[in-house]
Design brief:
The complex is a heterotrimer of chains A (about 775), B (about 160) and C (about 325). Chain B has two domains: about 70 residues, Ubiquitin-like (UB roll) (Roll), CATH 3.10.20; about 60 residues, Orthogonal Bundle (DNA polymerase, domain 1). In chain B, strands 2-1-5-3-4 form a five-stranded mixed sheet, with helices on one face. With about 160 residues, chain B is of the alpha+beta class. Chain B has five helices and five strands. Chain C starts with a strand and ends with a helix. In chain C, helix 9 packs antiparallel against helix 10. Chain C has a five-stranded antiparallel sheet with strand order 4-5-8-6-7, with no helix packed on it. Chain C has about 325 residues and is α+β, with helices and mostly antiparallel strands. Classes of the chains: A alpha+beta (about 775), B alpha+beta (about 160), C alpha+beta (about 325). At the B-C interface, strand 4 of B face helix 1 and helix 5 of C.
């Protein structure tokens, strides 16, 4: 036995997981700080870049088969209703209509924690699924959907969060959502000790992932076996959901995802559409493709919940925080979900007394899904805003105030961090943006365009965890194949895994093929979310490569008739330390084997006991606010982060730039709008739901203050997906306040809000 | 049904098709040119950008009938025999690709710019891809790749 | 998307015969019509492609008189035209701000002027007034982007940037009614919802806007400024086109048209009365700008547009 089971604890997406996980018994030591690495950390070009720039990369959206049929979904036009009668007789008359699913076919298909069905006669939001039709073409399916006659009993709806809070609000879901409360010390005592108290209320809008590639699946049956191509961040979740929904063995479902056009959390779960396509495909005996359009993507496949956050902070004259109160509520749609966002308040600074309450209310809208740093993005905006307010009241510089309240241990349980270079990040970021020289008093200066500087800090998990496995196959010609059941959703997983294997085996990355995203051939690998992938799968890849090296060494020793400690290894060749003429390269070694390929399996090791594992960082923003138009223009963002070891500077830059742009969109542009009167979604396209463009792109500098984290895992790396986005909106909001001297407390900071705020300030 | 003929990546093609089919459908379904991606279906994301009569346009907003006697260049037509052109090479080199779904559209928008103007200012590069959304990696590396390509002055019009 | 016929008439006089019922639509660049059809705002049986009609895509300078721009001239061509940039700057400014580069390469001037509203209720499955329903959902709904003046009973804003510039430039539209061509001054072209809630202009479905004539702008300078939440691919929250004659620091005559605030490009009486004689100093401009939109009746979420439009007037006048 080279592995054992241990109790594995880790945080992922706001949920503390404690499960048994299989980990290797002998643990590979992390690379030492001063060891010069040849591949890891180098800015290698993406392994998949050729496919992507040439247009040959095949995404799920591009997948097709002969005889493929197309499925489309009928969605509720009403936000709250009960279906009394469905008449599909007209719809199925057309010979091009091949099959249909209605709630009558889905009585056993529970969905949303059992509060709904795959297709339900109770519809709870505009966009809720009612029926699914498969036809020869998309047009046939669309036309048939129009012919379904439905008798609805329309019920009162509520889409306004403030109305949803009232006892008189229409009941939406029987599953009770309980407030989450966290207490430390005694809040009241803490407030009494304080010399100053600041109190304020902030809010954020619902945001939608909107990846460029639509949510889509292509399914094909081969007898009892089902092949699913899916644009997903979690092939195992899709496999298991499809298998259990269809009541077939998991081993009969093979899920494949090769290239994918973004996810951001919205593709972490199995979608209803995948299951519906599988059911219809079974029914008609033909492959089926289902693609959501942009409206459906904005209605029905997840979002970042809204938040209203009432914050109160008490501090002493010397700047030490004595108390934090955070009362937050928001909505995660019509089904069980969480709008919680108090984690930054709990964990970012030292504070002995706090009370944090998160409450989630139902409204008649699409359910939430994890969205790049769930809770943290909205929580950090509000919390880092009030931290700035407290600093201002104390007459302290925002950075000085934050450093004063720096905590060297996790404030929840006082455990040490594997590493925490947050103060270093403050120094590096402040230096780069020339904080001391540039930042003036809030609202300082005249002119039409006012410039402001702001910053915000970030904490996230991102250390990864077991279980994750990787199989390494080394071929006779020195080429290798790494196989793992994670997925590369664009972040660069293919590339960094090849670099890790290359580092250990000292073979060039071009000779390493990485196979991911196939439940049929891969051992289990982490989902692509939570900044989990690199620090979970990377160490498994290294473990597999180290095992391969040991295996080869043992073979070389046998073949050269030397003891292993007399051997050294360099770039595919073993040689005797004593006699340089005694060598064995791959072809010599493999010449002695019956097989042309050697195989090892690596596993992610256990996380270190007794440590808190987090990523940290700070972002600094320079903004121009035009006081005549209300437009906020972000000129410069400096991101300084502690994320352990950089695996690939090029893919790291991509992640950071993308995260910052997404944070910028959340701060200034993005907002899901529902018409409260009809309960229907208004932002159904990419014109009304505004993503940032190249024109909004500021100058961006990314500084990594960490060289490695030698306690976290054998590659010393932590994830960067969410850290990149978390502090951006807070930094921008603080910079806007610094520019105009009036605080916009509701995101996004759109021109109308700025103009209205300036008008009320001047009056 | 409508009969159309046009030049696709340098070759004359003819087909008969339904009037309501769009260029993106024809490219992807009839010619298996799936490098042109669909993101919004309504001209708002730029993922389906191709070059029509030397101008970058959204192929989701071009009807079959509008193709008559046109010249169309897609991502598959800008490299020859599997060898990437300079712009594509620079996308690799400058790390301008992440998930890659917006990449063909980005490349076609920049390619169209460089056909017209082989020495664009940075502002002109930005303007040229202002109608192409990227949700993953931001845009800076894309400008770098375009800038480097403009400086090499090596884009030639393969559709001629 | 439902199927339709794609008809390519060879002449203007051929166009009308396809409009015996109301299931046809004129098709130029198609960037707007295709969106409406795809979203099923309208279901047309015939798309009448105007590209096959000769000579609609010409730009002609008529010496001493002005400029004639064919309705099928592409927005990108207008944006890049040196003549337009130098002599009819407001139109050039406006064309550069239309949608995205890809759209500008397809969209035409005629189409831009005649495009349908972008109201999110109108564009989706709401039975609103403009679609023969009995309710304007925006009036008490999500009306941040809607009209602050001239709205009742339907609160759309006119989406065209070029129309705002052309109104300031006193353009004249040439319209073919199936038999003959007539000239209509732009000031008589657009229709407010209280006159007709279904249409934004006077054109009958079969009538073709064939060209736009802009009179020579001797001794006059013009500019257009647009403000939207995004600097690209977005519609104006407010815009201003201005054309003035100056004598030193004083404006001796001119016109100001507001966009993004009303269902038609908006001619505000008070500012247009006050423009002549205005001295271009900060204080006078500031006072002058307050004359704009004094009769506005903003809805619950669009009051900011009054400040914004006035500020844009300040910006454009201090730069002219």
């Amino acid at each position: 036995m080279s592995t054992k089971f241990i109790k594995s604890k880790f945080w992922v997406e706001d949920i503390k997981e404690e499960m048994m996980a299989e980990v290797p018994i002998s643990v590979v030591e992390p690379w030492q700080k001063d060891k010069e690495l040849k591949y890891v950390g180098k800015p290698e070009s993406r392994k998949d870049a050729y496919d992507k720039v040439s247009g040959t990369a095949e995404y799920t959206f591009d997948k097709s088969f002969s005889q493929i049929a197309v499925a489309k979904t009928l969605r509720s036009p009403y936000p709250n209703a009960v279906i009394k009668k469905i008449d599909v007789s007209e719809a199925i008359k057309n010979k091009n209509v091949l099959g249909i699913l209605t709630p009558d076919n889905c009585k056993d298909n529970d969905w949303y924690s059992g509060t709904s069905k795959l297709l339900d006669k109770k519809v709870r939001y505009n966009g809720d699924e009612i029926a699914c039709i498969v036809a020869e073409t998309e047009q046939d399916a669309e036309e048939a959907l129009r012919l379904i006659k439905i008798e609805y009993e329309i019920l009162p709806h509520v889409t306004d969060l403030e109305k949803a809070k009232l006892d008189t609000a229409a009941k939406i879901n029987d599953h009770e959502l309980k407030p989450r409360e966290y207490n430390r010390g005694n809040l009241e005592e803490g407030l009494k000790e304080a010399d100053i108290i600041v109190e304020d209320k902030f809010s954020t809008s619902v945001a939608v992932h909107n990846p460029l590639e639509p949510h889509c699946s292509v399914v094909k049956w081969d007898g009892e076996k089902l092949l699913v191509f899916d644009s997903t961040q979690g092939i195992w979740a899709v496999r298991d959901t499809v298998a259990s929904q269809l009541g077939i063995p998991a081993s009969n479902v093979r899920v494949i995802k090769k290239y994918m056009g973004g996810g951001f959390g919205g593709k972490l779960e199995c979608g209803k559409y995948t299951v519906m396509a599988a059911l219809l495909s079974k029914k008609i005996g033909r492959p089926v493709k289902i693609v959501l359009d942009r409206k459906e993507m904005n209605q029905a496949v997840g979002n970042r919940p809204s938040s209203v956050q009432e914050l109160k902070i008490g501090a002493k004259k010397d700047g030490s925080i004595t108390a934090i109160s955070h009362n937050a509520y928001g909505t995660a749609g019509a089904f069980p979900g969480s709008a919680g966002c108090s984690w930054p308040a709990r964990s970012l600074y030292k504070c002995p007394n706090m009370k944090l309450v998160d409450t989630t209310y139902y409204i008649n809208a699409g359910k939430d899904r994890p969205f790049r740093a769930p809770g943290h993005v909205q929580g950090t905006f509000a919390f880092e805003s009030i931290i700035d307010e407290a600093a201002e009241k104390l007459g302290m510089d925002p950075i000085e105030f934050r450093v004063k309240n720096f905590t060297a241990v996790d404030p929840d349980w006082n455990g040490p961090y594997t590493s925490k270079l947050l103060r270093e990040a403050y120094i590096a970021g402040a230096d780069k943006i020339r904080w001391k020289e540039n930042r003036k008093k809030a609202g300082f200066g005249g002119g039409i365009v006012k410039t402001g500087y702001g910053m915000a800090s970030q904490i996230w998990w991102g250390g990864g965890a077991p279980p994750s496995y990787a199989i390494l196959k080394l071929n006779w010609d020195g080429s290798a194949e790494l196989v793992s059941g994670t997925q590369d959703i664009g972040t660069g997983t293919y590339t960094i895994l090849a670099q890790i294997v290359a580092e250990v085996l000292e073979i060039p990355t071009r000779k390493i093929n990485v196979v991911l995203g196939d439940t049929g051939v891969c051992p289990f690998g982490a989902m692509s979310g939570g900044s989990m992938t690199a620090p979970s799968v990377g160490p498994a890849a290294r473990d597999a490569a180290e095992k391969m090296l040991s295996k080869l060494k043992s073979a070389a020793a046998a073949i050269l008739e030397l003891s292993e400690d007399k051997l050294e290894y360099s770039e595919g060749v073993f040689s005797s330390k004593d006699d340089r003429s005694k060598t064995a390269d791959f072809s010599k070694l493999f010449g002695h084997f019956r097989e042309g390929v050697l195989v090892t399996q690596g596993a992610r090791e256990a996380n270190p006991e007794g440590y808190a594992i987090n990523t940290f960082g700070a972002q600094f923003a320079k903004v121009d606010v035009n006081t005549l138009t209300g437009k906020v223009c972000v000129k410069h963002v400096v991101a300084a982060h502690d994320i352990g070891r950089v695996l690939n500077r090029k893919t790291l830059n991509n992640q950071f730039h993308g995260g910052i742009m997404m944070g910028l969109g959340f701060a200034l542009l993005e907002e899901r709008v529902i018409d409260n009167y009809t309960g229907k979604l208004l932002t159904t396209n990419l014109l009304d739901y505004k993503l940032p463009t190249i024109i909004e792109t500021p100058e961006i500098d990314v500084i990594i203050v960490s060289e490695e984290d030698n306690k976290v895992n054998n590659i010393g790396a932590k994830g960067i997906g969410e850290p990149a986005m978390i502090p951006t909106a807070g930094a921008i909001a603080n910079a806007v306040y610094n520019a105009i001297g009036v605080r916009i407390k509701d995101l996004p900071i759109t021109p109308d809000k700025v103009l209205n705020a300036l008008a009320s300030k001047n009056n | 049904m409508i009969q159309i003929s046009f030049i696709l990546n340098g070759k004359k093609v003819k087909l008969e098709t339904d009037e309501n089919r769009r260029l993106i459908d024809i490219l992807r379904e009839d010619f298996s040119l799936t490098g042109t991606k669909e993101g919004c279906s309504i001209g708002e994301c730029g993922a389906c950008t191709i070059i029509m009569n030397k101008l970058a346009v959204n192929s989701c907003l071009v009807l079959a009938g509008q193709l008559i006697d046109s010249e169309i260049l897609t991502i598959e037509g800008v490299s020859e025999n599997g060898k990437l052109n300079v712009l594509q090479e620079n996308f690799l080199k400058y790390g301008a690709v992440q998930c890659g779904y917006c990449t063909p559209g980005m490349i076609m928008s920049i390619y169209a710019l460089l056909l017209k103007n082989n020495n664009p200012a940075d502002e002109e590069i930005k303007e040229a891809i202002a109608g192409n959304l990227c949700r993953c990696t931001g845009y800076k590396q894309i400008i770098d790749a375009a800038r480097a390509t403009a400086d090499t002055d090596m884009i030639t019009d393969l559709s001629q | 998307m439902k199927n339709f016929k794609y008809i390519q008439p060879k002449s203007l006089s051929e166009v009308k015969k396809y409009f015996s019922d109301n299931h046809s639509v004129l098709y130029a660049g198609g960037t707007d019509v295709l969106g409406l059809v795809k979203k099923e705002v309208y279901n047309y049986e015939n798309m009448i492609d105007l590209k096959s009609v000769p000579d609609l895509d010409k730009v002609e300078e008529v010496k001493g008189k002005g400029l004639k721009i064919g309705a099928l001239v592409k927005i990108s061509e207008i944006a890049e035209s040196e003549i337009i940039k130098n002599k009819y700057t407001a139109l050039s400014d406006a064309a550069q701000k239309v949608a995205s580069p890809q759209i500008r390469n397809m969209a035409t001037l005629g189409g831009n002027i005649c495009q349908r509203p972008r109201c999110w209720y109108y564009r989706d499955d709401y039975a609103c007034l403009r679609k023969d329903g009995d309710y304007c959902y925006a009036e008490e709904g999500e009306n941040k982007y809607h009209a602050v003046i001239g709205g009742s009973p339907c609160f759309i804003v006119h989406p065209s940037d070029t129309a705002v510039a052309l109104m300031a430039l006193d353009a004249v539209f040439n319209i073919f009614d199936g038999n003959a061509e007539r000239e209509v001054p732009i000031s008589e072209f657009f229709v407010q919802p209280d006159e007709d809630v279904y249409l934004e202009n006077i054109l009958k479905p079969y009538e073709v806007l064939t060209s736009v004539f802009i009179p020579e702008q001797k001794n006059k300078v013009s500019r257009f400024i647009k403000f939207a939440e995004r600097d690209v691919w977005d519609f104006a929250m407010a815009s201003v086109a201005v054309k003035v004659e100056k004598n030193g620091n004083k404006i001796t005559g001119g016109k100001i048209i507001l966009g993004g605030v009303a269902p038609i490009p908006w001619y505000d009486e008070k500012i247009n009365k006050g423009i002549s004689g205005l001295t271009l100093d900060e204080k006078s401009i500031d006072e002058f700008s307050k004359l704009a939109l004094q009769d506005a009746e903003p809805l619950s979420k669009n009051g900011y547009k009054i400040t914004l439009a006035r500020n844009l007037i300040k910006m454009i006048l201090s730069e002219i």
